[in-house]
What does this fold into?
Amino acid sequence: MKDFKGDKLSKEYKEWKKKHAEASEGLGDTVEKITKATGIKKAVKFLAGEDCGCDERKEKLNQVFRYKKPECLTEEEFDLIKMAVDTKKNKFTPDEQETYKIIYERIFKTKVECTPCSFAKVVYKDLVAVYNQYL
It folds into this structure.
């Protein structure tokens, strides 16, 4: 399974977590990434100086146009979902469903009704999507 060396996180989880942290919070982050990639940001800083108002605009755009970004999975949650994905698990006990429901509610900051039908169609599907999104 996984090598434990003290409290060190697995390399795979560290990489996943880094990509999650780098994901855009909102439109402001996306605009900043585009202006950096095209060289516009550097040109504006050169012409207008370091305090060109870019950071304030970015934060305002992020507040107004926030993306639905879930909270980061813990390493334990990451490993649980990874194991289910890797083994192509498709049957879950009621206790397992409750565990996944708790994870879902925490990272999406919402309550969810967890029936056998909604578990597969919503809870598990969305958790796997979050797991895959930052691979």
